[in-house]
Amino acid sequence: MGRLVRIYRFGYVAERSTGTHSLLETIRQIGADGFSELPPTTFTYTQFDPAAYAVVSMQNPPPLSLFNPDADLVDMNYDGLPDIFYTPSTGGHRYYVNRGNGSWAVTPVYPAQSPPDRLSSPGYDHRRGAARG
Protein backbone atom coordinates (compact mmCIF):
# COMPACT_ATOMS: atom_id res chain seq x y z
CA MET A 1 0.00 0.00 0.00
CA GLY A 2 1.28 3.45 -0.87
CA ARG A 3 1.97 6.22 1.59
CA LEU A 4 1.29 9.91 1.44
CA VAL A 5 4.23 11.82 -0.02
CA ARG A 6 2.80 15.33 -0.38
CA ILE A 7 -0.45 17.25 -0.64
CA TYR A 8 -1.22 19.94 -3.21
CA ARG A 9 -3.77 22.65 -2.41
CA PHE A 10 -5.01 24.81 -5.26
CA GLY A 11 -6.38 28.32 -4.74
CA TYR A 12 -8.69 29.90 -7.30
CA VAL A 13 -10.12 33.39 -7.86
CA ALA A 14 -12.93 34.58 -10.09
CA GLU A 15 -11.89 36.11 -13.41
CA ARG A 16 -12.57 39.85 -13.08
CA SER A 17 -14.15 40.85 -16.38
CA THR A 18 -17.02 38.32 -16.29
CA GLY A 19 -16.75 36.59 -12.93
CA THR A 20 -17.91 33.37 -14.56
CA HIS A 21 -14.52 31.70 -14.97
CA SER A 22 -12.03 30.71 -12.30
CA LEU A 23 -8.31 31.34 -12.50
CA LEU A 24 -5.63 29.37 -10.68
CA GLU A 25 -4.05 31.77 -8.18
CA THR A 26 -1.88 29.61 -5.90
CA ILE A 27 -0.52 26.12 -5.48
CA ARG A 28 0.58 25.11 -2.00
CA GLN A 29 2.69 21.98 -1.50
CA ILE A 30 2.39 20.39 1.93
CA GLY A 31 4.70 17.65 3.17
CA ALA A 32 3.75 14.10 4.16
CA ASP A 33 3.60 15.17 7.82
CA GLY A 34 0.62 17.39 6.96
CA PHE A 35 2.28 20.51 8.41
CA SER A 36 5.55 21.40 6.65
CA GLU A 37 4.92 23.60 3.64
CA LEU A 38 6.93 25.10 0.80
CA PRO A 39 6.33 28.75 -0.17
CA PRO A 40 3.27 28.87 -2.45
CA THR A 41 3.59 29.17 -6.20
CA THR A 42 1.51 32.16 -7.27
CA PHE A 43 0.08 33.15 -10.61
CA THR A 44 -1.04 36.55 -11.86
CA TYR A 45 -2.97 37.40 -14.99
CA THR A 46 -3.29 40.49 -17.13
CA GLN A 47 -6.78 41.84 -17.57
CA PHE A 48 -8.21 41.54 -21.07
CA ASP A 49 -10.02 44.64 -22.27
CA PRO A 50 -12.04 43.80 -25.41
CA ALA A 51 -12.71 47.50 -26.03
CA ALA A 52 -8.98 48.05 -26.56
CA TYR A 53 -8.84 45.70 -29.56
CA ALA A 54 -10.34 46.00 -33.02
CA VAL A 55 -11.61 43.11 -35.08
CA VAL A 56 -9.64 42.77 -38.32
CA SER A 57 -11.36 41.05 -41.24
CA MET A 58 -9.30 38.58 -43.23
CA GLN A 59 -8.23 39.55 -46.72
CA ASN A 60 -7.91 36.76 -49.29
CA PRO A 61 -8.43 33.95 -46.73
CA PRO A 62 -7.32 30.41 -47.64
CA PRO A 63 -10.01 28.32 -49.37
CA LEU A 64 -10.42 25.88 -46.44
CA SER A 65 -12.22 25.59 -43.17
CA LEU A 66 -10.55 24.66 -39.91
CA PHE A 67 -13.47 22.28 -39.45
CA ASN A 68 -11.75 20.14 -42.11
CA PRO A 69 -9.99 17.31 -40.20
CA ASP A 70 -7.02 17.57 -42.59
CA ALA A 71 -6.41 21.27 -41.84
CA ASP A 72 -4.81 22.74 -38.75
CA LEU A 73 -3.05 25.88 -37.53
CA VAL A 74 0.73 25.43 -37.50
CA ASP A 75 3.47 28.07 -37.56
CA MET A 76 5.25 26.72 -40.64
CA ASN A 77 7.74 29.57 -41.15
CA TYR A 78 8.53 30.39 -37.50
CA ASP A 79 7.23 33.96 -37.60
CA GLY A 80 4.90 33.58 -34.62
CA LEU A 81 1.73 33.60 -36.76
CA PRO A 82 -0.50 30.56 -37.27
CA ASP A 83 -0.34 29.33 -40.85
CA ILE A 84 -2.81 26.73 -42.19
CA PHE A 85 -1.34 23.31 -42.92
CA TYR A 86 -3.45 21.04 -45.16
CA THR A 87 -2.99 17.32 -45.83
CA PRO A 88 -5.69 16.21 -48.32
CA SER A 89 -6.38 12.54 -49.06
CA THR A 90 -5.38 13.15 -52.68
CA GLY A 91 -1.83 14.07 -51.62
CA GLY A 92 -0.09 17.35 -52.32
CA HIS A 93 0.27 18.56 -48.76
CA ARG A 94 0.44 22.35 -48.63
CA TYR A 95 0.31 25.29 -46.32
CA TYR A 96 -1.01 28.80 -46.54
CA VAL A 97 1.25 31.51 -45.09
CA ASN A 98 -0.30 34.01 -42.68
CA ARG A 99 1.16 37.47 -43.46
CA GLY A 100 -0.38 39.14 -40.38
CA ASN A 101 -3.04 41.85 -40.08
CA GLY A 102 -5.63 39.50 -41.61
CA SER A 103 -3.62 38.99 -44.81
CA TRP A 104 -2.64 35.65 -46.34
CA ALA A 105 -0.24 34.72 -49.14
CA VAL A 106 -2.24 34.27 -52.35
CA THR A 107 -0.72 30.93 -53.39
CA PRO A 108 -0.06 27.95 -51.10
CA VAL A 109 3.40 26.51 -50.52
CA TYR A 110 3.90 22.91 -51.63
CA PRO A 111 6.77 21.20 -49.75
CA ALA A 112 9.25 19.33 -51.95
CA GLN A 113 8.40 16.04 -50.23
CA SER A 114 5.12 15.19 -48.51
CA PRO A 115 4.90 12.29 -46.06
CA PRO A 116 1.99 9.90 -46.61
CA ASP A 117 0.46 10.76 -43.21
CA ARG A 118 -2.53 13.05 -42.94
CA LEU A 119 -3.69 15.12 -39.97
CA SER A 120 -6.86 13.01 -39.85
CA SER A 121 -5.03 9.66 -40.10
CA PRO A 122 -5.98 7.27 -37.28
CA GLY A 123 -3.20 7.31 -34.71
CA TYR A 124 -1.54 10.43 -36.13
CA ASP A 125 0.66 12.02 -33.46
CA HIS A 126 0.93 15.74 -34.26
CA ARG A 127 3.78 16.12 -31.75
CA ARG A 128 5.99 13.72 -33.68
CA GLY A 129 4.64 14.52 -37.13
CA ALA A 130 4.03 10.85 -37.85
CA ALA A 131 1.61 8.02 -37.23
CA ARG A 132 2.15 6.10 -34.03
CA GLY A 133 3.18 2.57 -34.65
In round numbers, the mean pLDDT is 83
**What does the radius of gyration come to?**
23 Å
Indicate the overall shape.
flat
Give, in spatial order, the strands making up the sheet with the most strands.
1-2-3
For the terminal residues, how far apart are their CA atoms? 35 Å
- The H-and-E topology, N to C, reads as EEEEEEEEEE
Question: Would you kindly provide a written description of the structure presented here, covering whatever features stand out?
Answer:
With 133 residues, the chain is mainly beta. It folds into two domains: 6-48, no CATH class; 59-125, no CATH class. Helices cover 0% and strands 31% of the residues. The protein contains no helices and ten strands. The chain has strands at residues 6-14, 22-31, 41-42, 71-74, 83-86, 94-96, 98-100, 103-104, 124-125, 130-131. The strands form four sheets. Strands 1-2-3 form a three-stranded antiparallel sheet, with no helix packed on it. The chain has a three-stranded antiparallel sheet with strand order 4-5-6, with no helix packed on it. It has a two-stranded antiparallel sheet with strand order 7-8. The protein starts with 5 loop residues before the first strand and ends with a strand.
